[in-house]
Amino acid sequence: MLWSATGILLEVPSGVLADLCSRRALxxxxxxLGAAGFALCTFAPAYPAFAAGFVLWGAGSAMRxxxxxxxxxxxxxxxxxxxxxxxxxxxxxxxxxxxxxPRRAAWVSQTYTRLIGRSRAAATTGVMAASVLxxxxxxxxxxxxxxxxxxxxxxxxALAGRALPTGGDRERxxxxxxxxxxxxxGGAMRSLRTAxxxxxxxxxxxxxxVRGSRSARRALLLLAGLIGVSxxxxxxxxxxxxxxxxxxxxxxLALLAVSAGAVVGGWLxxxxxxxxxxxxxxxxxxxxxxxxxxxxxxxxLLAVSLGVTEWAGAAAEARLQDSVGExxxxxxxxxxxxxxxxxxxxxxxxxxxxxxWLGPAALFALASLAFLAAAGALRRGRx
Length: 383
Prior knowledge:
Largest sheet: none
Radius of gyration: 22 Å
CATH architecture of the largest domain: Up-down Bundle
Mean pLDDT: 85
Helix content: over 70%
Number of helices: 14
Distance between the termini: 41 Å
Number of domains: 2
Number of strands: 0
CATH superfamily of the largest domain: MFS general substrate transporter like domains
CATH topology of the largest domain: Growth Hormone, Chain: A
CATH class of the largest domain: Mainly Alpha
Shape: globular
Order of helices and strands: HHHHHHHHHHHHHH
Strand content: under 5%
């Protein structure tokens, strides 16, 4: 609860900070906070250290969320501006530049979808590999060795974040400061008031963008619903596997199979995104049928379902980025992250309440209705 509450409380403020300051710096700071939290849990294993460690871990996740997505999209826009309509050097004539704008926008959106999908596939693969490696590491060096490996992995993530491009951090920050201060300098108090005014302006601008853009609202709701429900239900796959007849030693293998489906879905992100609505309907059918089959083979259908939702989540995230402006991009992304956390918590609560009367199979079938509703909303929106 400490980890979740920290992430929820800091999600939007960290997005505002990413729009005001350096998104690259936050992408590097997030893993550093996580490394500090893992170090506390590893080298001072007591309740206060674990509590502080989970707070730091949650803060690090919030710092990275929103900032990384906005940085990647903005840098792709900068690269796209240097491309010609056919992918060569940038056109100089205004008419050809205007003619190539839709193609460049489509290139940015498709490339972003592919990058985000593949990065999530790589992350899932990393989790799978780490889960397997944890066994020999624990056998060799115990808890301290596993904790040290976690710290080192987080430090490597921080170095990777530091190596990212700036994505126009300096220019965007200067625009915010000039708007808040009216272009005038001042002392420490004036700077503090300017920073507060900039933060309020960014937050208000993000809310205005979401309220004023129907496509942004739809993409935000779709993203929160897909990632929130699928991420929450993924936690209950072991219970479904047990109810399907698998023994405890075979449950990890079932988890690997389901995770492999998510990896494939992420790797295929960016392809055939026009089929989003029918694909989500298929995902709903696969989840319901796989859960109600009552056999281990049904978990393969569940893997297909989660793979489709991973693919669809990347497309929804690209749609959200396409729909918002540059100066509040990270804040809007953080709003989507906040929505995802809210849906996840609500799904946990719904599962807990439903489990009083229903088993895992029926609860998974009911959860599939969320994907069916998303497919219906997409069809109505297109109509």
